[in-house]
Amino acid sequence: MAAPRKILHVDMDAFYASVEQRDDPSLRGRPVVVAWRGARSVVCAASYEARRYGVRSAMPAVRAERLCPDAVFVPPDFGRYKQVSRQIREIFARHTDLIEPLSLDEAYLDVTTTKTGLPSATETAAAIRAAIREETQLTASAGIAPNKFLAKIASDWRKPDGQYVIRPEKVGAFLVPLPVGRLPGVGKVTEARLTSLGIATVGELRERPLGELEHHFGRWGRRLYELARGIDEHPVEPERPSLQVSAEDTFEQDLPLDELAPHIERLAQKVWAGYQREAGRVARTVVLKLKTSDFRILTRSLTPAVHPSSVGELTRIALALRARVALPESTRYRLVGVGLGGLIDRDQYQAQTGLFDDVA
């Protein structure tokens, strides 16, 4: 049998808020909320001082202000966060070329074989975290495990500024006592369905046969069966030319369609920041994704005559796509996503539009 992979999940600690506190000493030790003020604004990030009051990302800003009246609201600066993210990516690249970024502040790394020759994944994680601290004055947490989903769970275990290793022989013992809600993809609704079946922990999930889980959850049942046993064969996928830049959120509570606007606006900001990394490429299509409370997935898309050229245009189109959802008003949604699709090289885009101009 092949030797187990050695996978790291490196996650920056309260990244946006920590960058703000680093760059403005007056914010250090204070509850910082990265968000625009206003009834329709949503929290992008919260410092650990703000989290003690219950403030979390994706929360409406007005609720964050009620929970923490002394919070300092700072508007997001995605250009600055992107610059720091590039610094961190350069540190990763000293150790391995197998890097799969998930966002500006987290990534998977396959360190089964490294460039540095460090003897273990644990020492590699420690070296990466030390370099991040020294070169950016920020902290990161890391999870070390034989696969991606376990590494992601492990990176939360010693937050902030810590690391945790799940060794291959300890996977079962680690997973069994966990609540099923800790498994990736198990949100509030799925957790409630599992609870109704008498399944509250991963250990109880492991006791159910594959056929029963597939009966209740369809194809997702097989994935639950595998996750409960620590099985995840997905390799770390290094960055490659993207066909789409997207971001999505699963809500704590299902929401009606008319309450999704602030979430769409915040995701559009996040997508646009990611799109800026796609230098020399053009996105032609705006995509809106929705998942209903009963797990039905809807997508709406638009390819305008001229590609979106600003975050404002992206936001306007994404919000307009919401109006093309023709489900009953009583429908509730557990997830919303925004994407820019159809990415091609700028030269190719200009050649295509020039061709159509000639035809016209």
TrEMBL record:
<dbReference type="Pfam" id="PF11799">
    <property type="entry name" value="IMS_C"/>
</dbReference>
<dbReference type="InterPro" id="IPR022880">
    <property type="entry name" value="DNApol_IV"/>
</dbReference>
<feature type="site" description="Substrate discrimination">
    <location>
        <position position="16"/>
    </location>
</feature>
<comment type="subunit">
    <text>Monomer.</text>
</comment>
<keyword id="KW-0234">DNA repair</keyword>
<keyword id="KW-0963">Cytoplasm</keyword>
<keyword id="KW-0808">Transferase</keyword>
<dbReference type="InterPro" id="IPR001126">
    <property type="entry name" value="UmuC"/>
</dbReference>
<keyword id="KW-0235">DNA replication</keyword>
<feature type="binding site">
    <location>
        <position position="11"/>
    </location>
    <ligand>
        <name>Mg(2+)</name>
    </ligand>
</feature>
<dbReference type="InterPro" id="IPR053848">
    <property type="entry name" value="IMS_HHH_1"/>
</dbReference>
<keyword id="KW-0460">Magnesium</keyword>
<keyword id="KW-0479">Metal-binding</keyword>
<comment type="similarity">
    <text>Belongs to the DNA polymerase type-Y family.</text>
</comment>
<dbReference type="InterPro" id="IPR043502">
    <property type="entry name" value="DNA/RNA_pol_sf"/>
</dbReference>
<dbReference type="InterPro" id="IPR036775">
    <property type="entry name" value="DNA_pol_Y-fam_lit_finger_sf"/>
</dbReference>
<dbReference type="Pfam" id="PF21999">
    <property type="entry name" value="IMS_HHH_1"/>
</dbReference>
<keyword id="KW-0239">DNA-directed DNA polymerase</keyword>
<dbReference type="InterPro" id="IPR017961">
    <property type="entry name" value="DNA_pol_Y-fam_little_finger"/>
</dbReference>
<protein>
    <recommendedName>
        <fullName>DNA polymerase IV</fullName>
        <ecNumber>2.7.7.7</ecNumber>
    </recommendedName>
</protein>
<feature type="active site">
    <location>
        <position position="106"/>
    </location>
</feature>
<dbReference type="Pfam" id="PF00817">
    <property type="entry name" value="IMS"/>
</dbReference>
<feature type="binding site">
    <location>
        <position position="105"/>
    </location>
    <ligand>
        <name>Mg(2+)</name>
    </ligand>
</feature>
<comment type="function">
    <text>Poorly processive, error-prone DNA polymerase involved in untargeted mutagenesis. Copies undamaged DNA at stalled replication forks, which arise in vivo from mismatched or misaligned primer ends. These misaligned primers can be extended by PolIV. Exhibits no 3'-5' exonuclease (proofreading) activity. May be involved in translesional synthesis, in conjunction with the beta clamp from PolIII.</text>
</comment>
<dbReference type="GO" id="GO:0003887">
    <property type="term" value="F:DNA-directed DNA polymerase activity"/>
</dbReference>
<keyword id="KW-0515">Mutator protein</keyword>
<keyword id="KW-0238">DNA-binding</keyword>
<dbReference type="InterPro" id="IPR043128">
    <property type="entry name" value="Rev_trsase/Diguanyl_cyclase"/>
</dbReference>
<dbReference type="InterPro" id="IPR050116">
    <property type="entry name" value="DNA_polymerase-Y"/>
</dbReference>
<keyword id="KW-0548">Nucleotidyltransferase</keyword>
<keyword id="KW-0227">DNA damage</keyword>
<feature type="domain" description="UmuC">
    <location>
        <begin position="7"/>
        <end position="187"/>
    </location>
</feature>
